[in-house]
Amino acid sequence: MWRRLQDEGARIAYSTVCQYVRALEAAPKPQEKPAKAYIRQDYEPGFRCEFDWGVLTLWIGGVRRRL
């Protein structure tokens, strides 16, 4: 790395590059989110039921209903 910087004309000491690399290695790594996996599921009718705890607002026959 230091040699490449020298070849590109940078005037920098080898020890400065070493300090910079050590600081990068010691820096906390950003937390990566775990990958999510979705498994396609297929069941016979009536075999399994899934539901959502969310609230849904609908207008049915001109009446607002929250379900």
TrEMBL record:
Source organism (scientific name): Muribaculum caecicola
Protein name (database record): IS21 family transposase
Source domain of life: Bacteria
